[in-house]
Specification:
The protein is α+β, with helices and mostly antiparallel strands. Helices cover 36% and strands 20% of the residues. The chain has helices at 60-94, 131-137, 195-214, 226-235, 265-273, 282-300, 303-306, 309-320, 331-340, 342-345, 374-385, and strands at 98-100, 116-123, 150-158, 164-167, 173-176, 179-180, 186-187, 190-193, 220-224, 239-243, 247-249, 254-256, 259-263, 323-326, 350-353, 356-363, 367-372.
């Protein structure tokens, strides 16, 4: 018998079965198909398969997730590098700060004022200079100087107003309070030039002399030496200054022509130390020092310095290794000061010298001193203490 196409012989009725293998009389049972195995939850299939991700066009799902993970890990690595580098820089910079006990606590100390007030001093100590540096910078040997001295004394104030950069003439006639020297000898209060306070009692006596004579609380103290100026200027690639007249000073070694020019470290040091060739001697020098500070701030505030590690790290290292700060001053305070005085670099803020009544006030045993105008000085200090703008016309300036 011919089989009907498409039919299974076992499914035909008996009378239709083939005589070559059919089973007569009974219909065979139909077998149930075996169920599909359950997907293994631990066996991920491909896209669209059991246990696998949903199928997407072009298979973009896994690729996107893989690139997402790569980008995420890259960003995390960069963040960790930045944080690690910042911490390392912070530790490195903090370790370079030299501290000195400069802020004494004593009975009758002026109350703290508004804002922040720094006392800045320029030390002329030669002890750390080599014979070659002494000759190069025209500083004179350490043996020619009795004790350490300071030719630069400034009050820097900032807060709601300011910044104010006010010079105190080094020959200002003031009362140096009683003190005990390093050898334990006691000294009574006496009237002297203000730089004698630093020479006789160091930073502590200088701070106390400033506080008691001007009735202002000093919050921080910062001192910088000869090499600090040289290192900072060279690290920023020099400072650009425009001189109204030539400066030739045999004592400081300055030999600068009039006009705009870029000073290197040695030239800058000679410039800020010059006074004998200037028309108003110390008063002119204080004006030049303030102009130099503004020029240095402007040079240091350039992106080529701040964002170039080959300039930034030498500059910061040169600053921190050449200054001494009071025990309570840390890197946070120095950064805050740097940010607050940026206005000086663009001609903002206020700068000048405490009001002078007599530039050649003769005192027996001391020679010529600088006599400050008490009334006007009190107005200047009162404005700083209250963190208010200094009234115009009070400060001495040299154009």
């Amino acid at each position: 018998m011919v089989c009907v196409s498409g039919l299974d012989p076992h499914e035909m009725l008996p009378e239709q079965s083939s005589t070559y293998g059919g089973v007569s009389g009974k219909r065979p049972k139909r077998r149930k198909p075996a169920p599909d195995p359950l997907p293994d939850p631990y066996d991920g299939g491909g896209p669209g398969e059991p246990g696998g991700p949903p199928r997407t066009e072009g298979g973009e799902g896994p690729k996107r997730r893989r690139w997402g993970r790569i980008i995420g890990f890259t960003v995390l690595a960069l963040v960790l590098i930045v944080i690690g580098g910042s911490i390392s820089t912070w530790v490195w910079a903090s370790g370079k700060i030299t501290h000195v006990g400069a802020l004494p606590a004593y009975a009758g100390q002026p109350a703290a004022g508004a804002g922040t007030t720094w006392l800045l001093a320029g030390s002329d100590g030669r002890d750390t200079l080599t014979p070659e540096q002494v000759k190069q910078y025209h500083t004179g040997s350490a043996g020619s100087i009795i004790g350490s001295r300071t030719d630069t004394i400034m009050l820097l104030h900032y807060g709601a107003s300011g910044p104010d950069l006010i010079s105190i003439p080094r020959d200002s006639y003031v009362e140096v309070p009683a003190y005990t020297d390093a050898k334990g000898a006691s000294h009574s209060a006496s009237h002297e030039k203000i730089n004698a306070a630093y020479q006789e009692g160091g930073p502590q006596l200088l701070v106390r002399t400033v506080e008691q004579n001007f009735d202002i609380r000093v919050d921080h103290y910062l001192e910088i030496g000869f090499l600090g100026i040289v290192n900072m200027v060279d690290a920023v690639g020099g400072v650009h200054m425009c001189l109204s007249s030539a400066v030739h000073d045999h004592y400081s070694g300055a030999n600068l022509g009039a006009g705009c020019q870029t000073l290197n470290g040695a030239q800058a040091l000679a410039y800020v130390r010059s006074r004998y060739s200037l028309p108003n001697s110390d008063v002119s020098r204080m004006s030049d020092q303030q102009a130099f500070i503004r020029a240095l701030l402007k040079a240091a505030d350039r992106p080529s310095v701040l964002f170039n590690p080959f300039s930034f790290y030498p500059f910061v290292g040169g600053v921190l290794t050449s200054v001494a700060a009071d025990d309570g001053t840390g890197l946070t305070n120095l950064i805050g000061m740097a940010r607050s005085v940026r206005a000086l670099s663009s001609g903002g803020g206020t700068s000048g010298t405490l009001p002078i009544a007599d530039e050649s006030y003769s005192v027996s045993g001391l020679g010529d001193t600088v006599l400050l105008d008490k009334t006007k000085t009190a107005e200047v200090i009162g404005a700083m203490r209250a963190d208010k703008p200094i009234p115009s016309g009070l400060l001495n300036t040299v154009s």
